[in-house]
Design brief:
Number of strands: 10
Strand order of the largest sheet: 3-4-5-6-7-8-9-10
Number of helices: 15
Distance between the termini: 13 Å
Structural class: alpha/beta
Radius of gyration: 20 Å
Strand content: 5-15%
Helix content: 40-55%
Largest sheet: 8 strands, parallel, barrel
Length: 386
């Protein structure tokens, strides 16, 4: 039994009660494309300058975590914000991550889909003052990803809001990138709750205007757009946007609050998935998607519904710190030997948050080895004087 802190400052006993889900491959082909956005596992023994230097990566553990996702039939969104791009992980590290991951994916028996984030973060912001400079930065990373064999995700860049770009500049940048890609791309609309530096993205005053603009951008060359990931945490907006997409262009939900309903759909349309939470709830996600493919909606909800409170806790405001919860569950479940993150990011959340994540993961059947998880939770509590 554990003694866990509560949000109101009390300590209360807690006994594990969940039945762990056993990870496995789906028995049938899934009817939804599902990318799990994965984190990077640090190597604390090699780390020398955690706040300002290039992070030391435990490549064996990082790639093993990805193999675990692939083994369960999930695709991978690589080198995205979940991997702390621009928040502890630099482009040099991301590049090595992409190249190592693509080699591993090509050797995997399930031939998993891997899409990789292309951005502008290898160039100093002071040099990204024009559309041409931003395009050149994107193209540099896109070339690396395409050479490695990855699909492009055009990550939202902080550079465009930083120069006060209007819609004409966004169109200039994205038109070149979309039309010039070797294969259809995934667009990336990340709300400011995930990164405040992205406020005002698409050069629009509000979400409605931005939606019209993005849909126009896609409609100009829909054959070159595989889909768009939307992370605005607004179910009604996503459903309305989804209904307006050209045929064949996917909506990849990035809504870590409402994914269960969005992926199931409303009978007319449904969303696919590109979610950070899927890395933390992989057994439930994989088996729920299998149930959906089999038409077993009750089992779909039985598996996925208990994960929603967990996801809402991990992604609660300030949402940008959600990466800590992903790494925390990876540690509890034995996918890494420590709870250290690039840039010391594990300190971005408090012990009451981690205690609640522990409770909710147990309830959802997502503590794979309960005794190990309990022992590690005890160690973290002890570090906090509990």
């Amino acid at each position: 039994m554990l003694t866990l802190p509560t949000a109101d400052g009390r300590l209360e006993p807690y006994t594990l009660s969940g039945t762990p889900l056993v990870p496995r491959a789906p028995k049938v082909a899934l009817t939804r494309t599902a990318f799990a956005a994965a984190h990077v596992v640090s190597d604390p023994m090699a780390e020398r300058d955690p706040w300002t230097g290039r992070p030391a990566v435990d490549w064996e553990a990082t790639l093993a975590f990805r193999h675990g996702l692939w083994d369960q039939g999930l695709g991978l969104a690589e080198a995205m914000d979940t991997a702390q791009r621009g928040m502890g992980v630099d482009w040099d590290t991301a590049r090595e991550l992409i190249e190592r991951t693509m080699l591993a994916a090509k050797a995997h028996p399930l031939a998993p889909r891997v899409a990789c984030g292309a951005g502008t973060d290898h160039v100093d912001p002071s040099e990204l003052t024009s559309a041409e400079a931003i395009i050149a930065a994107y193209e540099h990373q896109a070339e690396v990803i395409e050479a490695a064999g990855g699909q492009l995700i055009l990550m939202a860049t902080r550079a465009l809001p930083a120069i006060g770009a209007d819609k004409a500049v966004y169109r200039q940048v994205y038109r070149r990138l979309i039309d010039g890609a070797a294969e259809p791309v995934v667009l990336h609309w990340l709300g400011d709750m995930f990164d405040p530096a992205l406020t005002g993205y698409w050069g629009c005053a509000n979400v409605a205007e931005a939606s019209d603009f993005v849909l126009e951008l896609i409609a100009e060359n829909p054959a070159q757009v595989d889909g768009i990931k939307i992370s605005l945490l607004d179910q009604s907006h996503e459903e309305a946007f989804r209904a307006r997409l050209p045929e064949g262009v996917r909506l990849y939900t990035g809504d870590d609050f409402n994914y269960a309903a969005l992926i199931e759909g409303n009978g007319a349309q449904y969303s696919h998935a590109l979610l950070g939470i899927f890395a933390a709830i992989a057994p439930a996600a994989s088996q729920a998607l299998e149930a959906l493919a089999l038409g077993e909606t009750d089992r779909y909800h039985a598996l996925l519904s208990p994960t929603v409170p967990l996801s809402r806790e991990i992604f609660r405001a300030p949402t940008r710190f959600y990466k800590a919860g992903i790494a925390f569950l990876s540690w509890l479940n034995g996918s890494q030997s420590h709870f250290i993150m690039p840039g010391g990011f594990q300190a971005s959340r408090d012990i009451t948050h981690y205690a609640e994540v522990f409770r909710l993961a147990d309830t959802a059947g997502l503590l794979a080895a309960p005794e190990l998880a309990e022992n590690r939770m005890k160690a973290l509590l002890s570090l906090h004087g509990i």
